[in-house]
């Protein structure tokens, strides 16, 4: 009996240590720079070696990708797995007419699409009326019930009373909102409650389209925003702010948020202020690109409408200001799995391919506090993708996903 146990122990340990996987490619973007003929060795869920092909050690299995580019698993900076494109079903109808169960089931499928598009981590920016279904989807992935990316989730998100939608109902009628309304001192308990229910970070709407004629106008005061930031910080969490107006961005920046989402009407001054305060910009170009087509009748061709020209200007000013740019498209507004669209627009609007590749890997990882992701480096987690062609020559090469590995497990 004792011998049998010993045998099982030996077999178990041999199996445990023997699985080394070598992955090599003609080009390797390691999260920082492009290398030629490099590779990695993966053991369990970690990268144990990175370097030139001919200097890598032995492995039990090898995969070579001639003509391909290996890189860290991409990180989506702004997703909503609980939303799908508004030209299929409007946002109001998704929030008001679909059950939370339906939305969660659909959302889990959407999460999977992000993974197979090469995005091994997503920062999901609010459940938009689906409560904590994002926390449940994240948990289902971690428990292996469904396939999906690593998730950082916001939960319900916080809005100022009276500002957020759905709107346009009889005032006596309480409609479920797309986020949780709170103001003043109550922001402390709401922030803590959202954290307690699973939010990895807190999202707040620093402005919204509630001005005259539905123009975007600031919502919370700086003091209110500071209260949220301070409360979240004591639990070790960041706050991220939706803000389209320069004033909303200014308040959020001075309150100490980590990133500002959208920034459509940013000025060079406020972008410089963000840079000084170490606040990153998530420009969500692809969302603007999509909604301008859904609702303003734009055909996607020239001449480009004002909203698109504003986003082009935003990238120009952002580059001039030196603010950190994270990559996040607001995917969900446009189809899940089409995440690369944001990266294509970043290049189209004036960023270099290498800057965009850094944004979607090492920069996103650093800004989001993912300390062992975003770089192909010894000891880092084995989140790796291989794409066809060279994305530093043509960013759309990122669409041709050849292999996806998350946590050392191959999905494609
Ligand atoms: Zn969003």
State Rg.
22 Å
The residue-averaged pLDDT reads 95
Main sheet strand line-up: 3-2-1-4-16-17-18
- Biggest β-sheet strands, sense, barrel: 7 strands, mixed
Can you identify the CATH class of the largest domain? Answer: Alpha Beta
**How do the helices and strands follow one another from N- to C-terminus?**
HEEEEEHHEHEEEHEEEHEHEHEHHHHEEE
- In whole angstroms, the N-to-C terminal distance is 42 Å
Bound molecules: zinc ion
Low-pLDDT runs: 4-16
CATH topology of the largest domain: TIM Barrel
Number of helices: 12
Structure explained in plain terms:
The chain is α/β, with parallel strands linked by helices. 35% of the residues lie in helices and 24% in strands. The protein has twelve helices and 18 strands. A seven-stranded mixed β-sheet has the order 3-2-1-4-16-17-18, covered by helices on one side. Strands 10-13-14-15 form a four-stranded parallel β-sheet. The protein has a three-stranded parallel β-sheet with strand order 5-6-7. A hairpin with a 2-residue loop joins strand 2 (34-43) and strand 3. Helix 5 (186-196) packs parallel to helix 6 (222-233) and helix 8 packs across helix 10 (306-321). Bound molecules: zinc ion. Zinc ion is lined by residues 78, 80, 125, 330.
Summarize the structure.
The protein is of the alpha/beta class and 412 residues long.
Characteristics:
412 residues, TIM Barrel, 2 domains, four-stranded parallel β-sheet, 18 strands, 35% helix, binds zinc ion
In terms of topology, how is this protein built?
Elements: H1 2-18, E1 20-29, E2 34-43, E3 46-52, E4 61-72, E5 74-79, H2 91-97, H3 100-116, E6 119-124, H4 133-142, E7 150-153, E8 158-159, E9 180-181, H5 186-196, E10 202-205, E11 207-208, E12 217-218, H6 222-233, E13 239-245, H7 246-255, E14 259-265, H8 268-276, E15 280-282, H9 285-296, H10 306-321, H11 340-348, H12 353-367, E16 384-388, E17 401-406, E18 409-410
Parallel strand pairs: 1-4, 5-6, 6-7, 8-9, 10-13, 13-14, 14-15
Antiparallel strand pairs: 1-2, 2-3, 4-16, 11-12, 16-17, 17-18
Helix pairs in contact: 3-4, 5-6, 6-7, 8-10
Bound molecules: zinc ion.
Residues 78, 80, 125, 330 line the site of zinc ion.
């Amino acid at each position: 009996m004792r011998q049998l146990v010993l045998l099982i122990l030996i077999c178990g340990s041999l199996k445990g240590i023997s699985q080394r996987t070598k992955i090599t490619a003609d080009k390797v973007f390691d999260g920082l720079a492009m290398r030629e003929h490099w590779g990695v060795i993966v053991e369990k869920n970690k990268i144990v070696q990175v370097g030139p092909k001919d200097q890598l050690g032995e492995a039990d299995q090898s995969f070579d990708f001639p003509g391909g580019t290996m890189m860290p698993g991409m990180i989506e900076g702004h997703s909503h797995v609980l939303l799908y494109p508004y030209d299929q079903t409007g946002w109001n109808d998704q929030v008001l007419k679909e059950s939370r169960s339906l939305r969660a089931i659909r959302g889990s499928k959407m999460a999977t699409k992000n993974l197979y598009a090469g995005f091994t981590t997503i920062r999901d920016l609010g459940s938009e009326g689906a409560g904590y279904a994002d926390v449940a989807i994240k948990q289902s992935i971690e428990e292996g019930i469904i396939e999906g990316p690593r998730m950082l989730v916001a939960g319900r998100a916080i809005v100022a009373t009276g500002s957020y939608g759905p709107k346009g109902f009889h005032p006596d009628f309480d409609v479920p909102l797309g986020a949780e309304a709170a103001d003043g001192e109550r922001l402390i308990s709401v922030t803590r409650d959202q954290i307690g229910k699973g939010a990895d970070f807190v999202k707040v709407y620093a402005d919204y389209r509630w001005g005259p004629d539905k123009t975007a106008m600031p919502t919370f005061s700086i003091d209110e925003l500071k209260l949220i930031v301070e409360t979240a910080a004591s639990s070790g969490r960041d706050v991220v702010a939706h803000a389209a107006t320069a004033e909303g961005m200014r308040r959020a920046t001075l309150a100490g948020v980590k990133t500002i989402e959208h920034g459509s009407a940013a000025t060079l001054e406020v972008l410089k202020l963000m840079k000084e305060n170490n606040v990153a910009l998530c420009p969500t170009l692809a969302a603007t690109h999509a909604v301008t087509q859904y609702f303003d009748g734009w055909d996607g061709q020239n001449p480009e409408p004002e909203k698109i020209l504003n986003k082009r200007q935003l990238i120009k000013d952002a580059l001039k200001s030196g603010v950190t740019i994270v990559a996040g498209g607001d995917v969900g507004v446009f189809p899940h799995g089409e995440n690369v669209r944001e990266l294509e627009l970043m290049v189209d609007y004036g960023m270099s391919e290498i800057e965009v590749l850094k944004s979607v890997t090492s920069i996103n990882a650093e800004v989001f506090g993912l300390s062992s992701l975003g770089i192909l480096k010894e000891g880092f987690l084995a989140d790796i993708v291989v794409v066809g062609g060279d994305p530093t020559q043509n960013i759309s090469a990122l669409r041709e996903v050849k292999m996806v590995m998350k946590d050392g497990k191959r999905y494609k």
